[in-house]
Structures are given as structure tokens and as C-alpha cells.
């Protein structure tokens, strides 16, 4: 891909072996959006870091996972939303379900519902422990995103068998085909 790519991990980041880690190595123009604290997501701080990355690389494709995908969806009303070329939102995580699974409350606000002003594809699984499939169908529709159903593959991370995920590149190029 010739377009710059911003990689946006979720809770705890995307360490060695995660498909986003491989993406960063494989794509010369891919940049990981760093957060000060990957284990304690804070909507305000995480949003500011992502907005700074977008301003530094306008026209980027965003490739986000889990809470990172929710963070990107929250940019619908951001002043930088027009600078985003498109987004691949993989396994978005329900905020309240994530808090319950980790037995703590995260400062991440409410689930975004606004139509995204940039092309997007949501990639989801029927048995993702972080998001019921019926809910992601509703959110993808609300966001104006195309939904790509991967079947029963968990949270689309290392634990569910996703290391170097070559098909992810094909899906991202599908977002690129939506670009004008």
C-alpha cells in the first residue's frame, strides 16, 4: 500500500506476534499510534494521541483492533475526521463488556453511534467474547461501515490463532477501493 497507515491497538497494546505487530513490520509506511498507558485506557488521552498521529500523517488509512476500533469510531465528530482516508475496524470491543471481563472500570465513555465521515470496514466474529455479533451488526450499520463476517474466530488476536494475518491486508485494500 502506498498510503500511510496508522495502527491503533486496543487494551494492553498489540505485542509481538499479534497481527498488528506484523503489519507494522510488513508495511513500510505503517506507524503504531503509541499510548502512554496501554493497560488503563483513558478516552481523552487516547483520543489526543490518535488525533496528533492523524495530524502528523493526514490521509492515512487507520487499522484498529478492539478498543482501538472503538476509539476510531469515536472520531466521527472530531476536528480531524476529514483527515482520515478510511478505517479497518477489527473486532471492536464493547466498552462495558471489556470492563466486566477485566473486572474494572475503564474511562472510555459510551459506545459511539455516529455515522463515520470516512470509508470503513468492520471485521467481526460470531463468538468474540468482547462483542456480541448482533450488537456489532447494529453498530456497523450506525457507523455506515461495511461488515465483514469472519465466522466463529474469537477476538481476532493471538489467542484465537491470528498471528501474521495476510487476509487483513486484502480487507484493508478493500477500504482503499472505497476511497474517492
UniProtKB/TrEMBL annotation:
<dbReference type="InterPro" id="IPR010662">
    <property type="entry name" value="RBBP9/YdeN"/>
</dbReference>
<dbReference type="Pfam" id="PF06821">
    <property type="entry name" value="Ser_hydrolase"/>
</dbReference>
<dbReference type="InterPro" id="IPR029058">
    <property type="entry name" value="AB_hydrolase_fold"/>
</dbReference>
<protein>
    <recommendedName>
        <fullName>Alpha/beta hydrolase</fullName>
    </recommendedName>
</protein>
Amino acid at each position: 500500500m502506498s498510503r500511510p497507515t496508522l495502527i491503533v491497538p486496543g487494551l494492553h497494546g498489540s505485542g509481538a506476534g499479534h497481527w498488528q505487530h506484523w503489519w507494522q513490520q510488513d508495511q513500510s509506511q505503517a506507524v503504531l499510534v503509541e499510548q502512554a498507558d496501554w493497560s488503563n485506557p483513558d478516552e481523552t488521552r487516547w483520543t489526543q494521541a490518535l488525533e496528533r498521529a492523524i495530524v502528523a500523517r493526514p490521509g492515512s488509512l487507520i487499522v484498529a483492533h478492539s478498543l482501538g476500533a472503538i476509539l476510531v469510531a469515536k472520531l466521527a465528530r472530531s476536528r480531524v475526521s476529514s483527515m482520515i482516508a478510511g478505517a479497518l475496524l477489527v473486532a471492536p470491543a464493547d466498552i462495558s463488556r471489556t470492563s466486566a471481563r477485566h473486572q474494572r472500570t475503564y474511562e472510555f465513555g459510551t459506545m459511539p453511534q455516529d455515522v463515520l465521515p470516512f470509508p470503513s470496514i468492520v471485521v467481526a466474529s460470531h463468538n468474540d467474547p468482547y462483542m456480541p455479533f448482533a450488537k456489532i451488526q447494529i453498530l456497523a450499520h450506525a457507523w455506515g461501515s461495511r461488515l465483514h463476517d469472519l465466522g466463529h474466530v474469537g477476538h481476532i488476536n493471538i489467542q484465537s490463532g491470528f498471528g501474521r494475518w495476510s487476509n487483513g491486508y486484502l480487507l484493508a485494500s478493500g477500504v482503499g477501493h472505497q476511497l474517492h
